[in-house]
Design a protein that fits this description.
8-stranded mixed sheet; alpha/beta; single chain; 8 strands
Length: 197
Amino acid sequence: MRAGTRREFVAGPAGRIECAVDSPASAPRGGALVAHPHPLFGGTLDNKVVQTLARACVDLGYEAWRPNFRGVGASEGRFDEGRGEVEDLAAVLRELPSSGVILAGFSFGAAMQAKLAARAKPHKLVLVGVAVVNFEVPAVPAGTLVIHGERDETVPLAAVLDWARPQELPLVLVPGADHFFHRKLQLLRAIVVSGCR
């Protein structure tokens, strides 16, 4: 059950950051920060995968914050090649309940969350379609939930396996799924709920 979505603005290093906040019906057990795909390729907080991740976190009792990166929607500033975007996420993270935090991201957003996790020490890290081909993605904590589509045409599965292998990091593969998980969003939601309980 969701109590609904509201808009919040957070002061960030490049100006205000627009956020959509989805709350559970009862008092949240913690906060979830969900990051969207690449700002220069149409990524916004309204992306279907990002909304699915937020709903899964709300299902688990977390208040889910979906910020627009700088230069997207009503967020101020302009694209900063993945440097300022991590700082934007850190600014929003400070607004979340500190009791237990889930960091989740899709594509570019997953790469940014992997960088943030190195210093934020989340309760759980969820990376979907993580953009390992265009960005340097650091090693992530053991127990990170990595989900990838078998037919991802944007981030090849082989590239994600090459990144995960040295870390001995398991991968959840969604058969038949493309990068945007078309017709697989309900399955994605179920995997996240199961993996973050």
